[in-house]
């Protein structure tokens, strides 16, 4: 079968190969025909080495498809079921799962380092234990979450990471209050979803911050009340909050520099929500005086900061009732030729629908 493969970390071009096999099928596992995949920023971060990932690998961790086959002992899904591919499955028995914080379950990482694919030349890994830039993937049954028939695969794929992460940051983690002021730094698919979450919660001002004009424009159509380039953020803070800072600031980039800006843009006593996935050697500096004196609450948010399956269900319900716009996210807003070209090849013949929401 075909898959788009990155041969070495640091390269920016994927190669579509047709000699790939999904491996590991057996008890407790399911084989999925991938019908749609999104491109999330973390895929790019894995390709360029910001996030740890062995190579060669198949990127993609935001996908949806149909169950082709189930291994012994699998009871939750059956052949033909439509599923979201969850890259962070819940074991259901660890302390984090029992607390309802399934986003902190480490069970899915236990197999890190086990290849998901092979080809005649050797092993091929899958990003985040999945690898959805492919026609088929084998994952643990917990990674296959059934979805209702009315949810198109493209929509389900986006719920698999970006939408869940961004909406959850606003609703579960930051718990945005009605009437508050919000700034969202970084307006890819996750940032846009945080904007939609803040809008749902009734924030009165939502400022989208992004260096790319087309993303700022998109942010306005998803509920931002204004959109500014990073160098205009200080001015927006002055105008909108009289210089005090925003009640909530979301950092959706994953860099210490933007996190520091976000910290300074948060009002005293306000909430800084860290959503972006950053590198292990990138350190955020805070001095001990400001940390205590300004009483800003720093709340990291991993994969939506709550029970993952409940977050999926909530996103589907909000989408179905027209309260969030997910169709609008299925667009090509970036030009990353090395990735887009490969995904276009994968797409040919309807092998795989792709949504690029980085
Ligand atoms: Zn668990
Ligand atoms: Zn992601």
H-E string: EEEEHEEEHEEEEHHEHEHEHEHEHEHHE
Mean pLDDT: 93
Q: Which percent range fits the helix content? A: 25-40%
Oligomeric state, counting identical vs distinct chains: single chain
Shape: globular
Task: Give the strand tally.
Answer: 18
Poorly predicted spans: none
Instruction: Give the helix/strand class.
Output: alpha/beta
What is the terminal separation in angstroms? 26 Å
Counting DSSP H or I runs of 4 or more residues, the number of helices is 11
Strand proportion, as a percent range, falls in 15-25%
Radius of gyration: 20 Å
Bound molecules: zinc ion
Annotate the secondary structure layout:
Elements lengths: L2 E3 L9 E3 L3 E2 L6 E11 L1 H7 L9 E2 L4 E8 L11 E4 L9 H4 L18 E3 L2 E5 L9 E5 L3 E3 L6 H7 L2 H12 L7 E5 L3 H12 L4 E5 L3 H9 L4 E3 L4 H9 L4 E6 L4 H10 E9 L13 H6 L3 E4 L7 H13 L16 H11 L5 E4 L2
Parallel strand pairs: 4-18, 5-9, 12-13, 12-15, 13-14, 15-16, 16-17
Antiparallel strand pairs: 1-2, 3-8, 4-6, 4-10, 6-7, 7-11, 8-9
Helix pairs in contact: 4-5, 4-10
Q: Would you kindly provide a brief summary of this structure?
A:
The chain has helices at 41-47, 95-98, 153-159, 162-173, 189-200, 213-221, 233-241, 256-265, 288-293, 308-320, 337-347; strands at residues 3-5, 15-17, 21-22, 29-39, 57-58, 63-70, 82-85, 117-119, 122-126, 136-140, 144-146, 181-185, 205-209, 226-228, 246-251, 266-274, 297-300, 353-356. It has 358 residues and is of the alpha/beta class.
